[in-house]
Amino acid sequence: MSLKHLKIALVCDWLTNSGGAEKVILALHQLFPKAPIYTSIYNRDRMPGFENAVIHTSYLQHMPWAKYKHQLYLGFMPSVFEQFDLNAYDIVISSSHSCAKGIITKPETLHVSYCHSPMRYAWENSHAYIREYEINPFIKKMAPFFMHKIRMWDRLSADRVDYFVANSKHIQNRIYKYYRRTSSVIYPFVDSKNFKAGNQRENFYLAVGRLTPYKRFDLIIDAFNKLGLPLKIVGTGISYKKLAQMANSNVEFLGRVSDQKLCELYSKAKALIFPQIEDFGITPLEAMASGCPVIAYSKGGGLETVVDKKTGLFFQEQNPLSLQGAVEKFETMKFDPNVIRDHAETFDRKIFNEKIIDFLEKKWETWQKEMAIK
Predict the structure, then answer these.
(1) Do 130 and 115 lie in a common domain?
(2) Is residue 1 a part of any domain in this protein?
(3) Contact 248, 274 (CB under 8 A)
(4) What is the rounded CA–CA span in Å between residue 222 and residue 248?
(5) pLDDT digits 0-9 by tens, 107-159
(6) pTM of the predicted model, to two decimals?
(7) Packed helices 320-330 and 217-227: angle between N→C axes, nearest 10 degrees
């Protein structure tokens, strides 16, 4: 059944910096360019690609520092999404890893939520989030009570979703664990046409991402301090100062780089280091689309993209010694950039688009039949 004549809206948590979730909402915007986007906060300067989108924001848009530190307003997010009026739409697609799935729709509206993760800071990561993030001591002491309320809202709001799509089998399991809901897996994508498999590798390793505690850049730096091998780090974040202080001279921080520069780094690096437990992980796909092997921790979404000893190498324990051993083993191995790229192309955007459209068409047809019976 065609979606052409349906009124569709998109919802996402925030549009303040570019990451995997933001790339998915951009892809959905390009699939449905007439669909307005509802979000809590939008930073136009940091989010290229949305210039022609109709974007509805909340009152948080005008709060101090909101465009740069949305974390300050997490406590307000549940009520923000409940206030959006979405009664005019046939289908609402939420792209959510926080509160966007908590929108309220009328009974006739189909709500599909593309879930990047149940709220990370509310469930199994809540203790680490409170312990590791540098926040006001009073707020840190009160945080467990705040998280209790957030958890209850998060669980209840999951029942407002008609169909869940998980971005990986890892997240599919978490959706069932915390929400007791089944879901379908549609993997995120890599724009493989934007990357080229470089055959001339240079003598450096690469790490890419937001410099936040759960990304485990501290583990990478600790291992490479001992290895003494050249390491380039791309990204910015709240942990920069701490990480810079612990790094030896063989570690270079590049900060935020252009897409063109990042493609160049992927095509030249010996390997990408990926030590975190990620929901899925777009970064390894971008590296592999450039023919760059990935040294990854053997848990989470990385298990669904990296093929051990073919497109990269796994290490078994999330500690510097285990990573160090994997890098030393990697130094004795050879990988074919073209084989690595061929694997990455199985996650191309074209495949993502086809699966999303097919899923929505089938669910809308089923939904219409169910509504007719009721």
Answers:
(1) yes
(2) no
(3) no
(4) 9
(5) 999 999 999 999 877 667 655 555 555 555 545 555 566 777 888 999 999 99
(6) 0.87
(7) 60
